[in-house]
Design goal:
The complex is a heterotrimer of chains A (275), B (383) and C (298). Chain A has 275 residues and is mostly helical. Chain A has ten helices and no strands. The longest helix of chain B has 18 residues. The chains are: A mainly alpha (275), B alpha+beta (383), C mainly alpha (298). Chains in contact: A-B, A-C, B-C.
Chain lengths: 275, 383, 298
């Protein structure tokens, strides 16, 4: 009631900032849309505008690897890797999030370690993991060292989101469930998880996309077979055809599908709750 | 210091045909109200009635969709709060969490470019006035609710306003502090002699404080009058019910003269009321209000004669100095507040048949027909 | 996490404490094996000896560090990184602050504000490399900007410095990292009680006065958090600066990259340790200025 919106005339600053915001959105999306359009470039193979004789030939080239390397294989590595990272990120950061709701010896140390893991330069960690595996006598591969490298980056993010979600979780829900005779496990299953579920979807979204797009930490750690971002990186240096843009379009579309699924399910849950 | 010159001017507030729309719906509609200079005015009504919107329009935090607002002789719509000479005390107090108490109070002076030493000195003086000088270096979060409120008050008063606007200032305090602060606000207003506009949803607060009570119902003013008038002579069933202390009865005008109106009740009785400027017409339905504490009870049914009504006791509630007796009169609720001496002389209990009786002088004609207490959460409030 | 709300109503006995440690174990294991041990090994290797064709020779020598410090290239690269960090920090802060301000205080409908906020954050979940590459057809010699300017007759020759220059590096950084500023500042600002702004206006503060005296100080933690992200991301970046400068500019990590090409792990490790120390020092400085942890768990 006290902060009801004002419908008076908008101040001039509104228009200035609205213009700034619009420009920023164009700045943010414009180039991506450009790549999207150019991926339909015709046989002229020009890397710049204008678009001549739109065709799907570069998508075709992408999946029939005559020149462009192992794109399909990279997809088949990146997608399951992202799926595993997503799953582990949700499981590990949610359980850890619950642990952090109470005081325990070492909590501060673990928290700062997680933050440090988040901000450590990816290349530095990449070297470290590679050296570690070498000393363990293991060779690096995407499903061992690569997975770990991705988790070192996605888990702190997931943990921070869980802090925000659980910080808003009123303890009286759990107390009420306890009063009503629920066991600890029932309380978690029937009360806590449903309440924090939208937050868990957000963690899943971060887990998937951070892994799917991760580059610096993948660089030395995925071994001989490339994941998708590494494949793109290779292409930027040696492929000079719109196939590169076609690959960009395909990965972006995959990202957008994942984002759309995550956001719409969060919105659906919230709407169901508020109606 | 040219701007402060306006502050010595009149703090009379006039709202002329003020409406405020939020999207398609009206928060307040066609408000006309004059609050005299130097008065303590309470805007009273349930939440969502538009009282806060009016306050915020006077403060300049909302712009009216149409209409004019005057403070003194000045049309203030579109003016800044400082130009208006108003200061607002927010419900949440809105103390700046990143500034010390002293810097909070000195904020206005800083905005006006007053030098550091002078503004500190003046803010300290103000803090001494509200007896919080010893806390000047604390942060707001380190203060109790009551202390925070005094800081908010000091921060408002340092602007030397001609109008102080208070948005539910006592609602966040516990009962003891609320009563204490209530007294302090009243004496402060008396001492300063400026206009106070105070938004509240509690009737006793309004009656205890206000020179002028404005009772609001969904965007409209139902009655603006002195506290005594509002309480004794409500003009509408809504006001009568909202203020409590009244029974509302509806009947048909059976006989009318220059001085007296007789009303036939569906239950069979006849009520007599002094004729006032309220509209009354032979054969038309009309509602009346009867004060709960002017009612005498006797045992037995069988109402005979005017100004009587019979029913069955539904509940009794001991209130200290009086006993609240709720009577079921043919499906309607009728309440008599009987003094404890009278009650214990002849106690009645649940299920007893009783007849209530009152004098014609305690009956007031209402300007609108009662539409029942539906939707009025305060209908059964005890006072 | 002392400041977290505790919900252990079901007594804080030993079993539930054990439970807590069990809950935090997976995280600790991952962090140990994929962060603590690797970083510790990097530190260890930085004191090893490098031998052509042999590679790592365990030892304790300072030659790697001395090599680096004596090498003027190291200094140039670090200065270049610092320069980029500062420029990007300033631009992303200005953009992030005003965009968050617009969303929180100027957009009146909450749903619209959330929608616009999501528009700003969606690119975060898409590939950084693609977003970086997407500047090529825009900034290139035959790119959109140059051809538009040529057509308009504003220039006779394509502008060369649009792509493969410090300019394009900064553009890409701003493009990639501004939302790391927007999100935490937005979060801080959204928590500011609107009546604080009105109270400031009541006290005669101008529009700018409100921003300077109320909004800015109360968004401090968000700004610090955003700065932490931007600083660490730019300092640790190798790929943006390489691709977008066309190899003309370097960063602190370029040195590491070069050493790795020659399998000189000890010197790469020493360089990594130096970089790590600088990043951690900056992070520590930011944590000192504001209690970021309090902000994170609130």
């Amino acid at each position: 009631m006290s902060s009801s919106p004002s419908y008076g005339p908008r101040p001039w600053t509104f228009y200035v900032l609205a213009a700034l915001f619009t420009l920023f959105v164009i700045f943010l999306y414009g180039p991506m849309i450009g790549v999207l359009i150019l991926s339909f470039q015709g046989p002229s193979a020009s890397l710049v505008f204008p678009l001549r004789d739109p065709s799907l030939m570069w998508f075709d080239e992408l999946f029939n690897p005559r020149r462009t390397g192992d794109v399909v294989g990279a997809f088949y590595r990146s997608l399951p890797l992202a799926g595993i990272v997503m799953l582990l990120t949700v499981l590990v950061s949610v359980t850890a999030g619950f642990a952090f709701r109470r005081r325990f010896w070492g909590s501060t140390a673990i928290f700062y370690t997680a933050i440090a893991s988040l901000i450590v330069p990816g290349l530095v960690l990449s070297i470290g993991i590679l050296v570690t595996f070498r000393y363990l006598g293991q060779s690096a591969s995407w499903y061992t060292s690569g997975l770990g490298a991705h988790l070192s980056w996605s888990l702190p993010f997931g943990l921070l989101i869980m802090f925000a979600v659980l910080g808003r979780l009123n303890p009286s829900y759990e107390e009420a469930a306890y009063d009503l005779g629920a066991t600890k496990w029932q309380t978690v299953k029937e009360v806590v998880v449903p309440i924090v579920f939208p937050g868990m979807i957000a963690v899943a979204l971060f887990g998937f996309t951070l892994s799917y797009d991760e580059f610096p930490r993948s660089w030395l750690t995925v071994g001989s077979k490339n994941t998708l971002p590494l494949e793109i990186w290779t292409m930027t240096t040696n492929v000079t055809s719109p196939a590169l843009y076609a690959l960009g379009t395909v990965t972006t579309v995959v990202s957008f599908i994942v984002i759309a699924i995550a956001l719409s399910s969060i919105i659906l849950i919230q709407r169901k709750r508020s109606s | 210091m040219n701007k402060t010159a306006t502050k010595t001017e009149s703090g009379e507030i006039r709202l002329v045909n003020v409406s405020k729309k939020f999207g398609p719906s009206y928060a307040v509609q066609n408000i006309n109200l004059t609050i005299p200079h130097g008065s303590y005015c309470c805007l009273l009504g349930p939440s969502g009635c538009g009282k806060t919107t009016i306050l915020r329009m006077i403060a300049g935090h909302e712009t009216p969709s149409s209409g004019e607002i005057f403070i003194g002789d000045q049309m203030v719509v579109g003016k800044s709060p400082v130009e208006r000479g108003t200061a607002m005390m927010f419900q949440s107090y809105a103390l700046f969490p990143h500034l010390t108490i002293l810097d909070n109070v000195a904020f206005y002076l800083k905005m006006r470019g007053v030098g550091r030493d002078e503004r500190r000195q003046r803010a300290e003086e103000m803090l001494r006035r509200v007896q919080l000088h010893h806390l000047k270096d604390r942060m707001p979060a380190q203060l109790s609710g009551g202390q925070q409120q005094r800081v908010a008050l000091a921060r408002s008063l340092i602007t030397n306003p001609r109008v102080l606007l208070l948005d539910e200032p006592l609602s966040a305090l516990d009962e003891f502090l609320r009563l204490k602060m209530r007294g302090e606000l009243k004496s402060l207003q008396h001492e300063l002699g400026i206009t106070f506009v105070h938004v509240t949803h509690t009737q006793p607060e309004a009656i205890a404080l206000a020179d002028m009570v404005v009772v609001m119902d969904t965007g409209r003013i139902d009655q603006a009058d002195s506290a005594k008038e509002i309480f004794n002579s409500p003009r509408t069933p809504y006001v009568a019910r909202f203020m409590g202390g009244q029974n509302v009865l509806t009947g048909t005008v059976s006989q009318i003269s220059d001085k007296v109106v007789y009303i036939g009740h569906a239950g069979g009785g006849t009520f007599e009321a002094t004729r006032t400027d309220m509209p009354a017409e032979q054969g038309k339905p009309i509602s009346i209000a009867v004060r709960r504490d002017r009612i005498r009870l006797r045992r037995g049914s069988g109402a005979s004669g005017v100004n009587q009504i019979s029913g069955v006791v539904e509940a009794t509630e001991y209130q200290g100095s009086f006993v609240k007796v709720t009577i079921d009169v043919g499906g309607d609720v009728f309440v008599a507040n009987v003094s404890d001496a009278d009650y214990f002389a002849e106690p009645v209990d649940r299920g007893d048949a009783v007849t209530a009786q009152w004098a014609a002088a305690d009956v007031h004609l209402l300007s609108k027909l009662d539409t029942g207490a539906a939707g009025d959460p305060y209908a059964n409030a005890t006072h | 996490m002392a400041s977290l709300p505790t919900a252990d109503t079901q007594s804080s006995n030993k079993t539930s404490l054990l439970m807590t440690y069990l809950q935090v174990t997976p995280l600790t294991v991952v962090l140990t094996f994929f962060f603590l041990i690797p970083v510790a090994l990097v530190v260890a290797v930085s004191f090893f000896r490098y031998q052509m064709l042999v590679g790592l020779v365990p030892d304790f020598v300072l030659t790697n560090y001395i090599d680096l410090i004596k090498n003027p290239t190291t200094w140039t690269l670090y200065l270049s990184t610092l320069k980029f960090t500062l420029i990007v920090l300033v631009i992303t802060f200005v953009l992030g602050f005003w965009i968050a301000y617009f969303l929180v205080f100027h957009v009146r409908n909450l749903l619209v504000a959330i929608g616009l906020f999501l528009i700003c954050t969606v690119p975060f979940w898409t590939s950084n490399i693609i977003r970086m590459i997407s500047w090529r057809p825009v900034l290139g010699k035959e790119g959109l900007i140059n051809s538009a300017l040529l057509k308009a007759g504003a220039i006779d020759q394509p502008i060369e410095w649009l792509l493969y220059s410090d300019f394009s590096v900064v553009v890409a950084y701003v493009h990639l990292f501004t939302l790391f500023m927007i999100v935490p500042i937005f979060n801080s600002m959204a928590r500011i009680d609107k009546s604080l702004l009105e109270a400031a206006v009541d006290a005669g503060a101008s529009r700018w006065g409100v921003v300077w005296n109320v909004v800015l100080p109360l968004s401090k933690t968000g700004i610090a958090l955003g700065a932490l992200f931007v600083v660490t991301l730019v300092m640790g970046d190798f790929f943006v600066v390489t691709v977008m400068s066309g190899g003309l500019s370097g960063s602190a990590t370029s040195g590491i990259f070069n050493d790795l090409q020659f399998l000189n792990y000890p010197r790469a490790a020493a360089n990594a340790v130096i970089l790590l120390i600088i990043v951690l020092l900056i992070a520590a400085a930011i944590f000192r200025v504001v209690d970021v942890r309090k902000e994170l768990v609130r």
